[in-house]
Amino acid sequence: MSITRDDIIDFIYAEARMLDEGRYTEWLDLWLEDGFYWMPLDYKQKDPHNMTSLLYEDDFMRRLRVERLNGERTFSQKPKSRCHHVIQRPFVDEFDAEAGVFKTNTSMHYIETRLDDQFLLALTATHELKLVDGKIRIANKRVDLLNSDAAFGNIQLLP
Amino acid sequence: MGKYETPEAVNALVQPHQVHKDTYIDAEIFDLEMKHLFSNTWVFVGHDSQTSKKGDYITTQIGTQPVIMVRHKDDDIKVLYNRCPHKGTKIAIDRAGNTGKFFRCPYHAWSFKTDGCLLAIPLKKGYAQTKFKESEANKGMQAVGEVKNYRGFVFARLADEGISFEDYFGDSLSSLDNMVDRSPEGRLEVAGPPLRYMHQCNWKMLVDNQTDTCHPMVAHESSAGTAVKIFEEANWPEDKPKPMAMEIIAPFMSPYEFFEEMGIRTWPNGHGHTGVHHSIHSDYSTIPGYTEAMEETYGEERAAEILGENRHNTVYFPNIMIKGPIQQLRNFIPMGPDKTLVESYIYRLVGAPDILTQRTAMYNRLINAPTSMVGHDDLEMYERAQEGLHSQASDWINIERLHEDGEDFEVEAVENGTTERQMRNQMNAWAKFMTLAMGAKEAAE
Question: Which of B103, B240, B406, B420 is spaced 20 to 30 Å from B210 by Cα?
Answer without folding.
Answer: B406
